[in-house]
Amino acid sequence: MTDFSRLLAERTGSMKASEIRELLKYASVPGVISFAGGLPNPESFPVGGLKKITDKILTEKGTKALQYGTTEGIPELREAIAKRMSELKGFDAKMENITIMSGSQQALDLLGKLYMEPGKVAIVEGPTYLAALGAFRPYGGEIVGVRMDEDGLDTNLLEETMKKLKAEGKVVPFIYTIPTFQNPSGVTMSEERRKHLLEIAAEHDVIVVEDDPYGELRYAGKELPNLKAMDKDGRVVYFGTVSKILAPGLRTGWIIGDEEIIGKFVIAKQAADLCTNTLSQHIIAEAFSSGMVDAHIPEIRKLYSRKRNLMLDMLEDSMPEGVTWTKPEGGMFLWVWVPESINTKEMFPTALEKKVAYVIGEAFYPDRSVKNAMRLNFTYSSDEEIKDGVKRLADTIRDYL
Amino acid sequence: MTDFSRLLAERTGSMKASEIRELLKYASVPGVISFAGGLPNPESFPVGGLKKITDKILTEKGTKALQYGTTEGIPELREAIAKRMSELKGFDAKMENITIMSGSQQALDLLGKLYMEPGKVAIVEGPTYLAALGAFRPYGGEIVGVRMDEDGLDTNLLEETMKKLKAEGKVVPFIYTIPTFQNPSGVTMSEERRKHLLEIAAEHDVIVVEDDPYGELRYAGKELPNLKAMDKDGRVVYFGTVSKILAPGLRTGWIIGDEEIIGKFVIAKQAADLCTNTLSQHIIAEAFSSGMVDAHIPEIRKLYSRKRNLMLDMLEDSMPEGVTWTKPEGGMFLWVWVPESINTKEMFPTALEKKVAYVIGEAFYPDRSVKNAMRLNFTYSSDEEIKDGVKRLADTIRDYL
């Protein structure tokens, strides 16, 4: 038997199956209530509406919807997004500022491909989106996580970090943030911090990447301006997606930004997959322009808001002293801090014995420096599962203490 | 105005907009007959059948078809492909040997990501598929094209090249070939050469990548065994796609190979886009398992065979002395050699004046060493356009000589 692994490129050493993915294998054992996943609740998919639209698309422009499209994406969709984001969020964006991606994950991959290499440092939040780390790593360079608190990324720490890296001669190409209802923490960056972040980015003249998959899923509190809406010099690149407001199986996202930056993503995307699924693009363009998406989002908010409240109530009722958690105003996740004596990775087998699963917190830090935290998803499980699952988790922590 | 291009990684220097893409801009000028594209003919899309299937999928398993899927792809599709390729082509493949890609282009990108880096040499055919060059280049290393003749890749030359590279201490991770109805040449590799290629690959213990988007589109001659069907030690990785037998807008392809190699592609794909469009995967699984694809392919063959014959007849009738061309037994492209005194890139503006477009041959060679050739697509244009277009092209050459 020959061993083809000797032919692999060195960069594959940093490419590993996601930890969540491995954990999910255990979590799918029958009887285990899993708060580990990141899937939207299928109840939230507007199946009937999408069926009608798909039928219309295949009837009215079937051959067009089944043909290759341009790498940038179909004009109908780019225009619909430009219009919607200008009206809804005050973006100064035209079709030319938008290119369609095969999901936001592709945008993360291409961001790494375009800007990361040995000697470069990507700034992310600590904790940050796990799959962003997986996307950036193969391209070389370092990833530095800047800690967050209840107001989001600590921008004073960011300022220090940027100065320190500059003094070391390191080049930071971008700061990657999920400012609104962050994955994994559920935290939203305050308006003041948003301003400060943009000031720091301007001072160091780096790109800011605003990943915003959850921004439209607000259940409490007041709307905050997007970084992209506050952007004066075209340094914010915005990542959007239909995965959480329509359906993730359509694998469609988009980036909005400075035309020159967008042009680089288009060239990178051409080599990566030529173009995004044309049928899905036509379906989504129609879903936006017909008003279907806007009519549907309140339904998702209603469903998820109830589940969020239920999980917060259950945590309040069940958790032992010394356990704290974030109170997300939207999104899909919340973050639990357990006493410092507990390592949630070491506790994981105990949780599985109690038939409940979470994602260990350390996975979300580039340097894995935080051991006493976990991420919980509150949108996927049934109400019963949320009730029982939080109790099991509280029992786990109590037993383990 | 700030200049963000200073933040780009060095590898972006090798990332350029495809030449075909740039040419196509001119080719879409009204009145120009373009043989430059590579699009399937939309007449070949089974719109009605796909509409019925899509309706069935959204009715029977809508939420499943709209949810995230596993990175490997949905089991229904992987099983349908394993069954079909075993029965049709004699592959020894199970579901575990298959992972779904967002089109074959993604397979090319991940092939580069997994195996290419400085010091490595990818072996390709000269000429080869343009977008394969674009996919490999950003990952570093060299690309060496081994010349083809009317029997496909010249395996004696390949043997010499492999020995030479070995002597130079260079590592070749894979040999990339499109053995059947090649893009751009239209040439099919003989059975003897296929055997020889596999012997050389075994001797040097490298991977063989068989890219086979056109294999089912045969209009003449006898069926030849796929490299994958002749593969005894799991070194052939096979790339398949629905783009030419169903619809490219569904952006779905697959790779078939040794489980360990497939596992590496799965990890790479996870960071690249998480999973392929789930709705498309369900549609395609049903299109395969219901027999719809098999019933439809003869229709495509009939349409394209007529267009191929027409273009070959027109070339025979119109071309001046000294011009030769390949006679493809299938696929979508043929290759034209003009007298050595003509540089087809320099002739291109003249062709546009005559209102006809092609792709310049040199773009398909990694070293751009061939100047007197062009690729023509015979599947997209109407019969009238083929007649007029070939005449215009013959006039162009005659005038230019």
Description:
The structure is a homodimer of 401-residue chains. The relative contact order of chain A is 0.17. Chain A is built from 13 helices and 14 strands. Chain A folds into two domains: 4-45 and 296-400, Aspartate Aminotransferase, domain 1 (Alpha-Beta Complex); 66-293, 3-Layer(aba) Sandwich (Aspartate Aminotransferase, domain 2). In chain A, the strands form four sheets. A five-stranded mixed sheet of chain A has the order 2-9-8-7-6, sandwiched between helices. Chain A has a four-stranded antiparallel sheet with strand order 10-11-14-13. A three-stranded mixed sheet of chain A has the order 3-4-5, with helices on one face. The model of chain A has no long low-confidence stretch (mean pLDDT 96). The radius of gyration of chain A is 21 Å and the shape is globular. With 401 residues, the first copy, chain A, is of the alpha/beta class. Chain A has helices at 19-27, 47-66, 75-89, 104-115, 130-136, 155-167, 191-204, 227-230, 259-273, 278-289, 292-318, 344-353, 383-400; strands at residues 33-34, 98-101, 121-126, 142-149, 152-153, 174-177, 207-211, 236-241, 253-256, 324-325, 333-337, 356-357, 359-360, 373-377. The interface between A and B is large, with 87 and 87 residues.
